[in-house]
What we know:
It contains 9 helices and 10 strands. The chain is of the alpha/beta class.
Amino acid sequence: MKIDLDLHIHSSFSPDSLVSPGEIIRIAKTRGLDGVAIADHNTVRGGITGLDLNPDPDFIVIPGAEYSTEYGHVVGLFLSEEIDVKGRKPQGHTLSPTLPFEDVVNAIHAQGGIAVLAHPFQSREWLPAHVFNGAVKVDAIEGFNSRAGTRAYPNANSLASRCFSEYGIPALGGSDAHLSWEIGRAYTRIDLGGVSEGDVCLRDSHSLVKEAILAGRVECAGKQTHRAVVPLTELVKAYKRKTYHRMPYFVLKLIVAMLGSVGLRIENAQRERANGKNPPQQQ
Ligand SMILES: [Zn+2]
Ligand SMILES: [Zn+2]
């Protein structure tokens, strides 16, 4: 039996999404998914709420959360409580504190979760090998994230798939949806082995699904999201945080993104200014 899950969705428990966990479940079902992972920024509350709300034995909700580390975003799946890891406070308008990679992975493993490196090459072209094969390493990467190519590196997903072949770790798919229409744009097809439909209650099959992911019985697929979702999400964040003075700037970015590739050039120039020196060259 094979099931299709979108393994990276943000709910209204994130500061930059308005979609409730119940709405995520409803929409995911209409799009033919067998389940979702709700992985909010720095909290597992959205995922736990979704888990408690789901009445359907043929649909699975995996509680998760997404953390910023020095090697990028790490999604913990199959979490049951918040992790207790301290890090640097968020700077400016960023959402998340930067937490030590090893502490985050260890904390996820300590509660039986899976650590997934999300959109590994969204804003970098290289990562050290120990992230994938060191003593403390991720269990999987996102081989396809629908938003990965909307930022600095349009080829982010192909870099991720190259990395997947090199280290042979499972590659998962997730939409990284913050807006309702993004749900299901990417998914992971998971082979549950000899299990047939009707044999199991999918809602309660967390161990089975976790086992299949760790064994690498997965395939990922999806479609890239339009880059306009980035300023749209920033608008949602400004609205929720009541930083209304930032909204005109993001409306402008939205218009630019809608008009085409000019948005990419603006972002690269901003990054260049922020780095203050030679940014990595785009391929
Ligand atoms: Zn992320
Ligand atoms: Zn995310």
